[in-house]
């Protein structure tokens, strides 16, 4: 296989630079299988405080054996290094921009836009499937889930959905996003998923192992590894609501993640400094809570809670 102009030979593992215009390169790990097949690209660390996926790719980098692969794997464990080391929530610290909102990128833009451009140029041409690993940020509690696209070409949507069904997460969510790393890949004809595990600024060996198993599931789904996958039990979310703060204030969630709620139920409320309720969030339909903000203080337009209709 060839990655960023470098050749990786069958049975070989290489760490290679992923060039970023006007900045230090990112590090990619490329594994070329002993026999030909499809290519899985997996990314993590778009948001620097979402640790489970980052650690999962560091683990898989050591565990995956190129000699056992029929195809190729490209891992990019840390896309936003400065955000990771600074503990920056959701953004690239150099310009304060959320990388998962700026695709397609711009080689002449600020660092976040240049990162987006670099990732598109390096990963989209080589990937038969792209999986972008996320989680709840340091201020979010989250139930494991996968987003799959419904706004791409029919064949791309279908391939993404079939890949999503192979994962061990309990929920899969229809997504109409188009400006993120995985969702722009879909617009460019690459099947892709966004997988979420963990949150609240912590990680555990158990969560990392579960994330690794999901990547193994994708490798078996693509027949890069043999064996196939057993049937998975998943609930598909056909409609989701993402509530945001109407103003800066104090946020009090009333329900936990993975909890069923009835239409009209209070999901949480926002108070101002004087203790007045300035926003009450109620469920618009019967559904299940997917994630919510755990921080007491929130800014206007910050995410508060997400719930979905099965």
From TrEMBL:
Keyword Hydrolase recorded: yes
Instruction: Name the needed cofactors.
Output: Zn(2+)
Spell out the CDD domains in the cross-references. M14_ASTE_ASPA-like
Enumerate the GO terms in the molecular function aspect.
hydrolase activity, acting on carbon-nitrogen (but not peptide) bonds, in linear amides; hydrolase activity, acting on ester bonds; metal ion binding
| KW Zinc (keyword) present | yes
Keyword annotations = Hydrolase, Metal-binding, Zinc
Database matches in InterPro entries: AstE_AspA_cat, N-alpha-Ac-DABA-like, N-alpha-Ac-DABA_deacetylase
This chain's protein is named: Succinylglutamate desuccinylase/aspartoacylase family protein
Native organism: Anaerotruncus colihominis DSM 17241
Lineage at the top is: Bacteria, Bacillati, Bacillota, Clostridia, Eubacteriales
């Amino acid at each position: 296989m060839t990655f960023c102009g470098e050749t990786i030979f069958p049975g070989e593992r290489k760490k290679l630079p992923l060039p970023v215009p006007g900045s230090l390169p990112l590090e990619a790990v490329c594994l070329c299988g002993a026999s030909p097949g499809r290519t899985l690209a997996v990314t993590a660390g778009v948001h620097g405080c979402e640790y489970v996926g980052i650690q999962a790719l560091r683990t898989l980098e050591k565990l995956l054996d190129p000699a056992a692969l029929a195809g190729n794997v490209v891992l990019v464990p840390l896309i936003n290094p400065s955000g990771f080391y600074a503990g920056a929530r959701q953004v690239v610290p150099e310009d304060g921009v959320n990388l998962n909102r700026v695709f397609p990128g711009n080689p002449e833009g600020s660092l976040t836009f240049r990162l987006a451009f670099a990732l598109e140029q390096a990963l989209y041409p080589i990937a038969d499937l792209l999986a972008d690993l996320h989680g709840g940020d340091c201020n979010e509690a989250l139930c494991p889930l996968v987003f799959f696209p419904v706004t791409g070409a029919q064949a791309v949507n279908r391939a993404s959905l079939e890949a999503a069904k192979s994962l061990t997460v309990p929920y899969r969510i229809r997504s109409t996003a188009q400006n993120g790393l995985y969702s722009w890949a879909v617009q460019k004809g690459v099947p892709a998923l966004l997988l979420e595990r963990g949150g609240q600024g912590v990680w555990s060996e158990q969560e990392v192992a579960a994330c690794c198993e999901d990547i193994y599931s994708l490798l078996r789904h693509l027949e890069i590894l043999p064996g196939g996958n057993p049937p998975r039990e998943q609930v598909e979310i056909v409609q989701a609501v993402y509530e945001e703060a109407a103003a800066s204030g104090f946020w009090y969630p009333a329900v936990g993640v993975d909890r069923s709620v009835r239409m009209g139920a209070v999901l949480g409320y926002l108070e101002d400094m004087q203790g007045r309720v300035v926003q009450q969030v109620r469920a618009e339909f019967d559904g299940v809570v997917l994630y919510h903000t755990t921080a007491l203080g929130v800014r206007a337009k910050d995410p508060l809670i997400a719930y979905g209709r099965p």
